[in-house]
Write a structure and sequence with these properties.
With about 240 residues, the protein is α+β, with helices and mostly antiparallel strands. The chain contains six helices and eight strands. The chain has two domains: about 60 residues; about 130 residues, Protein of unknown function DUF881 (Alpha-Beta Plaits), CATH 3.30.70.
C-alpha cells in the first residue's frame, strides 16, 4: 500500500481551526454591515444635521397648512355664494289652481269606546294620531292622486300635517275630528294603494279592536280649492 505524500496531508485539527476563523470573520463582517445600515437610518446627532432635519419638517408642515388654507377659502366662498330667490309660484305649482274630478273621500275619527280596567289598550289608542293621517296621505300620493285636500285645505309641497293630542294643525288653523281627506285620481288605484299601505293596515287593526273611525267613499265629482298663496322668509346677512 502506497503512503500518502506529506504535501497532501494536513492535521484534522488545523482544518477545524480554519473553519472557525472563517466563521468568526463572517459574523464580524455581517455585524459591521448591520451597524452601518442602522447608522444611516438613525437621526443625526450633530447640530447641523438636526437643524437640517427640523427645517425639512417645518417646510412640510407649512406646505400642508397652505393646502388647508386653500381648501378653507374654497369652502367659505361656496357658503357665502348668493343663492337664487325661490319663486313661490314654482313651489306652489300644481296646487295653485282649483281642480275638479273623480276621487276618494276618506274620513277618520276617534273611538267612543270605554276601555275596561284590565284592557291591553290605553286612551292613546282611542284617538287618531298624526302618523295615521300621514299614512293615508302618503298612500293616496303613492296611488297617483293628482290633488289632495285635508279639512278642505289643499295640500302643497310645503304643507305639514301636525297633531297635538287629537287636534290637527294645518296651515295655521286647528281642526278636531272627524278628519276628512279628499283626493282626486283613479278611485280603484287609490283604494288599492290604501289597502297595500302598512301604516293604513295598522290603523285598520285598531279600527277593528277599539273602534277607531274609518270610512272610504268614491266621489264622482270632488272640488278641491286652490292652495293659498305662500310667502317665504329667508335669513339675510347682517350688514
Amino acid at each position: 500500500m502506497e503512503s500518502t505524500p506529506a504535501s497532501w496531508w494536513a492535521p484534522r485539527g488545523s482544518t477545524i481551526g480554519l473553519f472557525l476563523v472563517a466563521l468568526i470573520a463572517g459574523i464580524l463582517f455581517a455585524s459591521t454591515a448591520q451597524l452601518f445600515r442602522n447608522a444611516d437610518d438613525s437621526p443625526p446627532t450633530d447640530l447641523a444635521g438636526l437643524i437640517r432635519e427640523e427645517n425639512a419638517r417645518v417646510a412640510a408642515l407649512e406646505e400642508e397648512m397652505e393646502e388647508l388654507k386653500i381648501e378653507r377659502d374654497d369652502l367659505v366662498a361656496r357658503s357665502t355664494a348668493v343663492l337664487p330667490e325661490l319663486d313661490p309660484e314654482l313651489l306652489n305649482s300644481g296646487s295653485g289652481t282649483a281642480l275638479r274630478g273623480t276621487g276618494l273621500r276618506v274620513q277618520m275619527w276617534d273611538s267612543s269606546s270605554v276601555l275596561p280596567p284590565d284592557s291591553n289598550f290605553d286612551v292613546n289608542d282611542l284617538v287618531v294620531h298624526q302618523q295615521d293621517l300621514e299614512g293615508v296621505i302618503n298612500a293616496l300620493r303613492a296611488g297617483g292622486a293628482e290633488a289632495i285636500a285635508v279639512q278642505g285645505q289643499r295640500l302643497t309641497s310645503t304643507s305639514a300635517v301636525r297633531c297635538i293630542g287629537n287636534v290637527l294643525l294645518l296651515h295655521g288653523r286647528q281642526y278636531s275630528p272627524p278628519y276628512v281627506i279628499e283626493a282626486i285620481g283613479n278611485p280603484e288605484r287609490l283604494r288599492q294603494s290604501l289597502t297595500d299601505s302598512p301604516p293604513v293596515q295598522v290603523y285598520l287593526q285598531y279600527v277593528d279592536r277599539v273602534g277607531l273611525g274609518w270610512q272610504v267613499n268614491t266621489v264622482a265629482e270632488l272640488n278641491l280649492p286652490a292652495a293659498p298663496a305662500s310667502s317665504f322668509l329667508y335669513a339675510q346677512e347682517l350688514s
